[in-house]
Write a structure and sequence with these properties.
This protein has 4 helices and 29 strands. The protein has about 450 residues and is mainly beta. The protein has 4 domains: about 1-80, no CATH class; about 85-200, Immunoglobulins (Immunoglobulin-like), CATH 2.60.40.10; about 205-320, Sandwich (Immunoglobulin-like); about 325-450, Jelly Rolls (Sandwich), CATH 2.60.120.
C-alpha cells in the first residue's frame, strides 16, 4: 500500500513539473504568443495532487476555469504510464557525410508487469536540419520486456553522402507513453525515449591566419594588417570580405566600435585550389581618437564546412597619443642617501602574424628636481640599460612555419629598463619627472639608501 501511495505521489509531482515546464515553453517552441489559456491556481493544483496521492478528499479550492469535471480516479488513470530505464538517455556524436556509427542501448523494465516496446524515430519539431527516418535503424524492431527484464538494442546511424553540414536531432521512442498536459500540446513528450544529437561536419578546406588581431596604433597614424587564407581543397573557393560581424560575439560596443570609415579592405574574389591568398586591411586612425576600439572583418568564405565564427577575424585596437607633459611623483630623501630610479616599459608582439611593422623601442626623458639645487633640476644619463626578451617556440601562438618564414623562435614580448642614480643626494622633497616615448605603459621603482 505504501509503495502504491509513493508511486501516486511521484506521478503527481511529474504532472505538476511537466505542466509548469510546458506552460512556459509552448509559446517559445511555437515561435509566437501562446493562445489565451484558463487561469490556473497553482496552490489548488499542489494541494489537490498531494491529497489525491494520499487517498484523501482535497480541500475546496478555486479550480481551473472552463475545465471538464473529472474524478480524482479518472485523473490518476490518465497518468498511469510505464517508465523504462534507458541507458544512455542521451547520445551525441559527429559524423561526416557518408559516415556511419553503431552503438548499443540498454532498456530495463522495472515495472511489475511486462511492457511491449517497438522502437521508432521521431524527428524533433524544431531546429534547422531534420533527420530522415531511413538514416537510423534499431534492432530488434520490437521486443516484450518481462517484469524486471532487460533488452539490448543496436542503433545504426548512416549519414547520406549528400547530407548538409549542420546539427541534427531526433528521438528514439520505445513506447507510446507520453507525459500528459492539461491543455493541447504542440507535440507529444515521450516518456521512454532516447535523445539523439548528430553533428554532420567536414574538415574545413580553408585555413585563416590570424583570426584575432590586437595592436596599438597612435592617433593620426595608419597601419596595415594581412590576413592569410589558405585553400587546401581541390576547387577554388569564393570569398567576399566585408566590415562587421565578429564584434557581436564579444557583446555590445556602441561606444567604441571601429568606425567603418577607418577601415579599407583589399582582397581577391576567390582563393584558388591548393594555394594561398592575402586579405589586406588598412586602418587609418584620426587625430582625435583615443582608447580601445573593437571591430571585425567577415570574410564570407563560400565553404559550408567552416563554422560561422571561423569566417571572421576580430580586430582590437588600442589607440594612444604621445604625451607632451611628463608624469610627476614627489618623494623624500635623507641627506647623503643614494637614490636609484629604475624605469621599465614592455612591448608585446600583438600582431606578429598580421603584417604589422616593428615598433620603435621605448625610451624615457627623466629629470630629478629639488628646489635647493642649483638650477633646480638634474637630467642624468642612464647608468644602466637592460633589454629582456621573452621567446616562444610556438606554444602560445600559431607556429611560425605555418604563417611566416621567421623560423622556430618568436619574440612574444620585450622589456626595456633604464637606471638613473644619484650618490650623496641632498636631503629634501625631490620630484621625479618621466616623459615616455613609444611606450604603451611603464613602471618605475625608487630606491633610497645604501645597498
Amino acid at each position: 500500500m505504501k509503495e502504491e501511495e509513493a508511486k501516486k505521489k511521484a506521478k503527481a509531482a511529474v504532472v505538476l513539473g511537466v505542466f509548469l515546464l510546458s506552460f512556459f515553453s509552448v509559446a517559445a517552441v511555437a515561435g509566437q504568443a501562446a493562445p489565451p489559456q484558463p487561469v490556473l491556481n497553482l496552490g489548488a493544483v499542489v494541494i489537490g495532487l498531494e491529497a489525491g496521492a494520499a487517498g484523501q478528499a482535497s480541500l475546496p479550492q478555486p479550480a481551473l476555469v472552463e475545465t471538464s469535471e473529472q474524478s480524482e480516479e479518472e485523473q490518476h488513470e490518465q497518468v498511469d504510464y510505464k517508465i523504462l530505464q534507458i541507458s544512455p538517455k542521451h547520445e551525441w556524436f559527429e559524423l561526416k557525410p557518408g559516415g556511419e556509427k553503431e552503438f548499443t542501448v540498454k532498456v530495463k523494465n522495472k515495472n511489475e508487469e511486462a511492457v511491449f516496446t517497438s522502437p521508432r524515430i521521431e524527428t524533433q519539431p524544431f531546429g534547422e536540419y531534420f533527420v530522415e527516418e531511413d538514416w537510423i535503424t534499431v534492432e530488434p524492431g520490437s521486443a516484450e520486456l518481462k517484469a524486471g527484464g532487460e533488452q539490448e538494442y543496436t542503433v545504426t546511424v548512416k549519414i547520406p553522402e549528400d547530407a548538409e553540414i549542420g546539427h541534427y536531432s531526433a528521438q528514439i521512442v520505445f513506447t507510446n507513453d507520453t507525459i500528459p498536459t492539461p491543455y493541447p500540446a504542440p507535440f507529444p513528450v515521450y516518456v521512454n525515449s532516447l535523445s539523439l544529437s548528430i553533428q554532420v561536419w567536414e574538415p574545413p578546406k580553408i585555413v585563416v591566419q590570424p583570426q584575432y588581431i590586437h595592436d596599438r596604433v597612435e592617433a593620426g597614424e595608419s597601419q596595415e594588417y594581412e590576413i592569410q587564407i589558405e585553400n587546401k581543397g581541390d576547387k577554388a573557393i569564393a570569398i567576399s570580405p566585408e566590415i562587421g560581424g565578429e564584434e557581436r560575439r564579444y557583446g555590445p560596443f556602441e561606444n567604441n566600435l571601429i568606425p567603418e570609415d577607418w577601415l579599407t579592405i583589399d582582397a581577391p574574389a576567390k582563393v584558388e585550389a591548393n594555394s594561398k591568398a592575402t586579405v589586406k586591411v588598412a586602418v587609418n586612425v584620426p587625430e582625435d581618437a583615443k582608447g580601445r576600439y573593437e571591430g571585425g572583418i567577415n570574410l564570407n568564405i563560400d565553404d559550408p564546412s567552416i563554422e560561422r565564427w571561423n569566417h571572421e577575424v576580430h580586430l582590437s585596437l588600442e589607440v594612444w597619443k604621445q604625451p607632451t607633459t611628463p608624469f610627476r611623483e614627489d618623494f623624500t630623501v635623507k641627506q647623503g642617501e643614494k637614490v636609484s630610479v629604475v624605469v621599465t616599459a614592455r612591448q608585446y608582439a600583438y600582431d606578429k602574424y598580421g603584417g604589422a611593422e616593428e615598433k620603435e623601442e621605448p625610451s624615457f626623458d627623466v629629470a630629478l628636481m629639488l628646489a635647493t639645487l642649483e638650477g633646480g633640476k638634474l637630467t642624468p644619463e642612464p647608468s644602466k640599460t637592460v633589454k629582456t626578451a621573452h621567446i616562444s617556440l610556438g606554444m602560445g601562438y600559431l607556429p611560425p612555419w605555418e604563417a611566416s618564414s621567421e623560423g622556430m623562435y618568436h619574440v612574444t614580448s620585450t622589456e626595456y629598463s633604464e637606471t638613473y642614480e644619484i650618490t650623496n643626494a641632498p636631503g629634501g622633497v625631490w620630484t621625479l619627472e618621466i616623459l615616455p616615448r613609444n611606450a604603451e605603459s611603464f613602471e618605475y621603482t625608487i630606491e633610497m639608501g645604501d645597498e
